[in-house]
UniProtKB/TrEMBL annotation:
<feature type="active site" description="Nucleophile">
    <location>
        <position position="79"/>
    </location>
</feature>
<keyword id="KW-0028">Amino-acid biosynthesis</keyword>
<dbReference type="GO" id="GO:0016829">
    <property type="term" value="F:lyase activity"/>
</dbReference>
<comment type="pathway">
    <text>Amino-acid biosynthesis; L-histidine biosynthesis; L-histidine from 5-phospho-alpha-D-ribose 1-diphosphate: step 5/9.</text>
</comment>
<dbReference type="InterPro" id="IPR029062">
    <property type="entry name" value="Class_I_gatase-like"/>
</dbReference>
<dbReference type="GO" id="GO:0004359">
    <property type="term" value="F:glutaminase activity"/>
</dbReference>
<dbReference type="GO" id="GO:0005737">
    <property type="term" value="C:cytoplasm"/>
</dbReference>
<feature type="domain" description="Glutamine amidotransferase">
    <location>
        <begin position="3"/>
        <end position="190"/>
    </location>
</feature>
<keyword id="KW-0378">Hydrolase</keyword>
<dbReference type="GO" id="GO:0000107">
    <property type="term" value="F:imidazoleglycerol-phosphate synthase activity"/>
</dbReference>
<keyword id="KW-0315">Glutamine amidotransferase</keyword>
<dbReference type="InterPro" id="IPR010139">
    <property type="entry name" value="Imidazole-glycPsynth_HisH"/>
</dbReference>
<dbReference type="Pfam" id="PF00117">
    <property type="entry name" value="GATase"/>
</dbReference>
<keyword id="KW-0963">Cytoplasm</keyword>
<feature type="active site">
    <location>
        <position position="184"/>
    </location>
</feature>
<comment type="subunit">
    <text>Heterodimer of HisH and HisF.</text>
</comment>
<dbReference type="GO" id="GO:0000105">
    <property type="term" value="P:L-histidine biosynthetic process"/>
</dbReference>
Amino acid sequence: MLVIIDYNLGNLQSVQSGFEKIGLPCVISRNKEIIEKADALILPGVGSFSVAMENLARYDLIDLIRARVKAGVLLLGICLGMQILFEKGYENGETLGLGLIKGTVEPIVTDEKLPHMGWNQLHILQQKHPLVKNLVENDEVYFVHSYQANCKDENIIAVTDYGQARIPAIVSHQRVLGCQFHPEKSSRIGQLILQAFKAMIEEKVEV
């Protein structure tokens, strides 16, 4: 069972629709018993880092998410959901994140207009990673964000360039994955990414 975590901050129905289009039923829930039974989790998010963590704390989901990851459950963070996978964010002050991937989330430094919004190319750094197995260099996906992850190269699967900023677009640490863009809004390429995630669940792919 795939569960989209509902912490009152994200385009939940859009994400659910994206997975259902590729034949992967999922439920939207913050119920602890349902989350504990999940084979995989989606952490969506639209908004600010600090509010996201406040909401996760309000619904008592932080320790539960960490426990499910420790138990080996696959987790995919999308947009803000990817950002809060890291240790700290600096939007509206300093806020502790989930700490599932080492690194911080800081403002994008660029001469280009912010937010970074619209279609942009992916440059794949780890072609053998199962989440990007269906992609080729320069495939385009849809971004909306003003902050970016800063982390070790080993955790970066793909990047995108925006002016002088090189932005981690897909990140990974073991069974924790993140997309800075919105795969559910990224047309055919987004569907290829969701299909790869589906295969990782069904085939119990080790990462």
